[in-house]
């Protein structure tokens, strides 16, 4: 499944009240470049620190999901993240002048409306999906919540919830495709029981809670006293109260609105993986705490899988760089240009392709009757691929020459023969450092390179290379 990354077309802003802090907060939504991901920026603090939306930054999950990096926090991110995931927005920054994402309507619909008003913009790079090859199961030891992720070609979710209180009971919700998110899931509002609200206020939560934006349940036939308490605390009357009276059910947008909202929260929390998920996700009793522990376990599973498995990419996709464009970056020419195309090119990684044919000149002597690609040329193909990663943003990349400094941990796992398609994956291990003198510019890059043939690892090595550009005499 190939989809292009997306951002928004223009900057847009809004102001509202933070659900838990009660503070009026302004948010500015900014489009971001390819492979930036989802970010939050606290523009009210010195140096305007940025917090990336990733599960490693989650520090609290009571009545919402809170992120923290270097002691800087952003709370209640889940509805915003769900809207981004539902519309498949990959690269965006929300600038905030306070510690919480301001609430719009208790659901994700307000955020969806804002994003559509800003306009969606496709970018010239494919989305990078997290995919699995076999069923992944997580049982949460703290809550008993159960999660099962199945391999699939799309992203779908199914959730069941079970409450011992009227009227929620046992409910089920599903989303067969993100194309239906806006209509089926985004409008589902947060819900709470009337007798829980005062206790949460006393704990310092819900300080900006607006009872007009939530579905509030009461299993009491006469909740007058509790309603008066909530009105006194929030200075607003409860509008969407659901009681044992049959007529009160009309306050619900869906008969299973609670289950749909739990599914909405799950979508937002799963977005903290850092890349879109591909698969069928089934969850029983999802909640923020269990969701985050599931996402952390799943992220670790993907990391372990990535060490042994080839990078996930579409070999038939339109290349980021074709052979002519590669020739403008690398000085190599026939018979020593060993990269045919670049499929993906990010800030710290690159995926290239080398198609090996019997016409390669080295097969004449290596070996007659048993053609095998020399290992040293496999490493050279990795070096050229990493050279593209290092040089694609510098001026006049074709004027640089690249030299090996070290090759560490080099291992050859299988023979490469005519007919093989090599998937060349290089990951930057340290930031590239360039220095310039009067005579030359020099850069140093360290990468982990791996070659796959199909599902099999053929070669791996850690490369340290020097890129040198000689300056023209003045």
Describe this structure in words.
The protein has 474 residues and is of the alpha+beta class. The protein folds into three domains: 4-187 and 259-308, 2-Layer Sandwich (Ribosomal Protein S5, domain 2), CATH 3.30.230; 191-252, no CATH class; 323-470, Hotdog Thioesterase (Thiol Ester Dehydrase, Chain A, Roll). It contains nine helices and 25 strands. It has helices at residues 78-87, 109-118, 181-184, 194-202, 224-234, 257-270, 288-308, 323-329, 375-391; strands at 4-8, 12-17, 24-31, 38-42, 50-52, 58-60, 66-69, 72-74, 92-96, 120-126, 136-139, 146-150, 155-162, 170-175, 191-193, 215-217, 241-242, 279-284, 341-345, 349-355, 400-412, 421-428, 433-436, 440-453, 456-470. The strands form six sheets. Strands 19, 20, 21, 22, 23, 24 and 25 form a seven-stranded antiparallel sheet that branches. A five-stranded mixed sheet has the order 2-3-9-4-5, covered by helices on one side. Helix 6 (257-270) packs parallel to helix 7 (288-308). The longest helix is centred in the middle third of the chain and has 21 residues, at 288-308. The mean pLDDT is 89.
Task: Set out the fold topology.
Elements: E1 4-8, E2 12-17, E3 24-31, E4 38-42, E5 50-52, E6 58-60, E7 66-69, E8 72-74, H1 78-87, E9 92-96, H2 109-118, E10 120-126, E11 136-139, E12 146-150, E13 155-162, E14 170-175, H3 181-184, E15 191-193, H4 194-202, E16 215-217, H5 224-234, E17 241-242, H6 257-270, E18 279-284, H7 288-308, H8 323-329, E19 341-345, E20 349-355, H9 375-391, E21 400-412, E22 421-428, E23 433-436, E24 440-453, E25 456-470
Parallel strand pairs: 4-9, 13-18, 15-16, 16-17
Antiparallel strand pairs: 1-10, 2-3, 3-9, 4-5, 6-7, 7-8, 11-12, 12-18, 13-14, 19-20, 20-22, 21-25, 22-24, 23-24, 24-25
